[in-house]
């Protein structure tokens, strides 16, 4: 997940991506969800800013909740946490960005099974989505949960959380909005904490005098994978920074 670029670089001239393609089989249920629910809940990629206000109005009408905020999640995997969090934030349009079709199908199936109105999916590279589809100061929050840690030192440069991406993310977050990252790999947690601390437009929300890590926010669930790790004695680190006014 190398990101050796600045946010102003021409994306068409570089092959950089925020993901690594992996193989995976789409189940019958996931494929059916793609066919049945994809047209309603998938936002096609476009090279210009989307009208978030119009989507807020559609969801407000369908759900009965006044929607006025936007939360953006990068890499939701199979969508377990995403489908849990979105209903807890009925005031927000929750956009999940994921490139892998089985994960998109799985989240669409969860949307149908649980009747979730305020979720939308973009199946595209998050860097291009942030650069083109989301206007500056348009996001109230960004979630990045358990990105690939790339354990081997020679692969660290592929990690998603690096300064260029954080600068781009911060430019899309409203003053007072937040960036929440979580990882179960301590060396990556240390890197995330340092990279976010180095971004001058962000401020750490962790209690003063502590280690810099935040208590787990109530909205982030413990996934089966995380619970299994905790039982084995593995740690989980949450890093939450807020956009300066």
Written overview of the protein:
With 245 residues, the chain is an alpha/beta fold. It has one domain (29-243): Rossmann fold (3-Layer(aba) Sandwich), CATH 3.40.50. It is 36% helix and 18% strand. The protein contains eight helices and seven strands. A seven-stranded mixed beta sheet has the order 3-2-1-4-5-7-6, sandwiched between helices.
Level-1 CATH class name: Alpha Beta
Number of domains: 1
Shape: globular
Give the assembly state of these chains: single chain
Strand content: 15-25%
Q: Any descriptors?
A:
alpha/beta; 245 residues; Rossmann fold; 18% strand; disordered N terminus; globular
Task: Please summarize what this structure is.
With 245 residues, the protein is α/β, with parallel strands linked by helices.
Outline the secondary-structure elements.
Layout (H helix, E strand, L loop, with lengths): L27 H14 L10 H12 L5 E6 L5 H9 L3 E6 L3 H14 L4 E4 L3 H8 L5 E7 L17 H10 E11 L2 H13 L3 E3 L19 H8 L5 E7 L2
Parallel strand pairs: 1-2, 1-4, 2-3, 4-5
Antiparallel strand pairs: 5-7, 6-7
């Amino acid at each position: 997940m190398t990101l050796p670029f600045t946010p102003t670089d021409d994306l068409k001239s570089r092959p950089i991506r925020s993901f690594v393609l992996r193989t995976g089989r789409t189940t019958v249920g996931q494929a059916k969800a793609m066919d049945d629910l994809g047209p309603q809940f998938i936002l096609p990629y476009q090279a210009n800013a989307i009208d978030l206000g119009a989507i807020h109005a559609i969801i407000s009408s369908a759900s009965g909740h006044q929607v006025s905020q936007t939360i953006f999640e990068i890499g939701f995997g199979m969508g377990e946490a995403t489908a849990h969090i979105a209903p807890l934030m009925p005031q927000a349009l929750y956009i999940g960005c994921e490139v892998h079709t089985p994960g998109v199908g799985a989240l669409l199936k969860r949307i149908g099974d649980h009747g979730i109105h305020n979720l939308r999916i973009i199946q595209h590279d998050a860097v291009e989505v942030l650069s083109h589809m989301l206007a500056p100061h348009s996001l109230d929050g960004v979630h990045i949960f358990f990105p690939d840690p790339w354990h081997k030192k020679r692969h660290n440069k592929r990690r998603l959380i690096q300064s260029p991406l954080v600068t781009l993310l911060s430019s899309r977050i409203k003053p007072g909005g937040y960036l929440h990252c979580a990882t179960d790999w301590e060396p990556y947690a240390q890197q995330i904490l340092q990279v976010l601390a180095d971004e001058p437009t962000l401020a750490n929300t962790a209690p003063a005098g502590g280690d810099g890590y935040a208590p787990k926010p109530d909205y982030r669930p413990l996934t089966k994978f995380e619970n299994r790790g905790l039982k084995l004695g593995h740690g989980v680190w949450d890093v939450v920074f807020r956009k300066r006014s």
